[in-house]
Amino acid sequence: MAPPLGNDVHTIRSEHRHTRRSVLAGLAAFGALGAAGCTRVASASGKDGGDLLQRLRALGVVRLGIAGEVPFGYIDRDGKLTGEAPELAKAVFKRLGVDRVQPVPTEFGSLIPGLKSQQFDVVAAGMYVTPDRCEQVIFADPDYQMPDAFIVPKGNPLGLRTYADALRRHAKVATGTGYAQIQHAVEAGYQESDLVIVPDQVAGLNAVESGRVDLFAATAVTARLVARGSAKAESTKPFVALVDGKPKADGGAFAFRPTETRLRDAFNAELHKLRRSGELYRIVRPFGFTKAEMTTLTAKELCGS
């Protein structure tokens, strides 16, 4: 695995600089809040599906693990929690009798360990449901389905539209830490050690703009939002990656500790109501999601069981 780009990437548009600073500030501010005003909710033994939902109702607050990634879950320039997953969590948990949400920012790779060690109650980061992750946590049904897209230099001079194109043109590929696009590129024929792994989508954009890589691979919604307004880069049309020679449907969902099936099932029930009423799409649309990215996939399908 190639090392991240590091801290020498400075040409970031102001809104992204502000977002990253806000995330760091949020880590400190909300960490202090957690220490001062929110007692850790112990997990039940798992008997009868756990009692976390009952405990959250009593406390009136649920702690959400987020990874500081636009548009999935982040602290905005005003220091407020927002994003596709947190806004959806607010709607669902209010219906479940929990009025407040408290963000716990962390790195993407720390979300599942943090959930298992009870640093927060739910992962609300648009996490893809994969068989490997299903062995560690339980998922609600996906709230979106997402193809991939690339961020490329303006005009897409190499004509990069799929991973096969990139491999054929010997393109240098960057993607984010823990991203599913690592697997997608490897399935296309790349060696993982040949990929440039960057800490986030802002670093990916800057790697493309500076010419250090030929493309940054991400979800379609991430590519659209990050490249928007760039004078040097653009996003490609969405495409479905191939895994084991077949189109791979990726869906993002909320994750819960395996003992808390009661909470997961209650969350699912309200999520399905929001989907049927159209409210789910209304909530996520401001974050760049389209109707094409709404889904009826289930966690069971994506877990492979």
From TrEMBL:
Domain annotation Solute-binding protein family 3/N-terminal: ranges: 61-291
Keywords: Signal
Highest taxon, organism lineage: Bacteria
Entries under Pfam families matching the protein: SBP_bac_3
PANTHER family cross-referenced by the UniProt entry: ARGININE-BINDING EXTRACELLULAR PROTEIN ARTP, MEMBRANE-BOUND LYTIC MUREIN TRANSGLYCOSYLASE F
NCBIfam families reported for this sequence: ectoine_ehuB
Protein name: Ectoine/hydroxyectoine ABC transporter substrate-binding protein EhuB
Gene field: ehuB
